[in-house]
Design brief:
121 residues; repeat; transmembrane; 3-stranded mixed beta sheet; alpha/beta; single chain; 6 strands
């Protein structure tokens, strides 16, 4: 008697795509984790005084005053002439899509942190 064989291809394809889906979700969560622009913008605002009132950690940084985004990434910050004082957080270096940073005519009293990852600035 011949043993009956079963076609497992649909089941294997389902398992493969399910595992692939989990991998994509995991990668997305890592991307939007500690180094995301919203977390970075929050860290950037902490040592500053008189930043715009809508710079809050629970808000999308792309809706904040003085911030311009493209595809969900911060590409420009314009806080010129805003009477801001304080120091700039080293977290600024995490905004890798940043192309413009305007802080003139404020009272920033520490030197800017290393910005070696900001190739477009």
């Amino acid at each position: 008697m011949m043993a009956e064989t079963r076609n497992c291809t649909p089941y294997a394809a389902f398992v493969f795509f399910f595992l692939f889906y989990l991998l994509v979700i995991d990668l997305c969560c890592q991307f939007h984790g500690e180094n995301s622009d919203d977390t970075t913008m929050y860290k950037l605002s902490r040592p500053l005084y008189e930043v715009p009132s809508n710079w809050k950690p629970q808000l999308d940084p792309c809706t904040s005053d003085g911030v311009i985004c493209s595809h969900g990434c911060v590409i420009a910050i314009n806080l010129a002439k805003r009477s801001i004082s304080g120091s700039i957080s080293p977290a600024l270096g995490n905004l890798t899509s940043l192309t413009s940073l305007q802080l003139e005519f404020n009272n920033i009293y520490d030197p800017l942190p290393r910005l070696s990852k900001l190739f477009s600035l």
